[in-house]
Amino acid sequence: MRVLFNLFLDICLFRKGPQDTPASLALLKMCLAAYGLTSLLALLIGTSALVALLQTLVDLALLSGLLYLALRLYRHPRRFEQTLSALTGVGALISVLALPLLFWIGGQSPGGNVELPALLLLALMVWSIAVMAHILRHALNVPMWVGALYALSYTFLSWQLTGWVGSSGP
């Protein structure tokens, strides 16, 4: 487990890429579960369990579907397992780092001081997008700016879809 933590930390620090992630269905399942669980925990801080679950499932489907489509488009479909493992493993790690900030913000009384945790959360979000761009750059064999464009596009699309699920949910 420590080896995987170090691998995902190295990817977050731009020292390794998705090609360093083992191609393993068991690892992919574990990373998907960790990503889903940490996403669900983060969403439960501000929404109901059903809405949080739906938002998590929408995000997982969007991430998997867009990645599969992009890898097919760039003629690298064999990289799917490793790349999705890298994206979800790193996503779970970053979500764990975001949880204390989300609890900090959620625990403030109305009118409370949330500037510092909100700023830290924003920095974490920017870092997350940069790491996703780094992973996509390697997986798709494209320049960093193209990876960044795809990472930003995915992020905004995910926010829109999960926000839509949240606003139309129970």
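Second entry:
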Amino acid sequence: MAHIVVEKKTKKYTYEDYCKISDDKRYELIHGELLMTPSPITNHQRISRRLEFILEKFITEKKPGELFDAPYDVYFDEENVVQPDLLFISKDRLHIIGEKNVQGAPDLVIEIISENSAYRDMVLKKKLYAKFGVREYWIVIPEGEEIEIYTLKDNTYQLYKAYGKGGTLESPLLKDLKIGLVDIF
């Protein structure tokens, strides 16, 4: 008796489909898969606000580029559109900022891990950001009060440094930036 194999096909979404969504929920499009993103929890919002405040102050003083926060679309291609928690675009690449979204890889992306985003941020989006050329990627881990910085080398991320409690973060991309983790967590 022959066995019949039925392959389950899931719909591949495109940016056009993504733009037609009319509900109030947040979504991201990764490899053509539409993924809903729940609202961040309180601690996530506090960390995001503190990081944004420190980065905005640095960027206002030094003028190396522009900072944005979620929700704001980063369009990589027709099947990959994400909304990082924070993103930075250097002044020599400001041309990728469009009227509706960022068209291409930001120089720096920061994701704050939450219980429902750990796999997406640490695996899916990490690979996606490397593939499309995001030069520096920060993963903020609230539970452990740490921040991991990854830098891009040969289309893969290398751990630059993991900063723990009491440490002072220094970004290879944003020269002269120093952030005491005590000011974040």
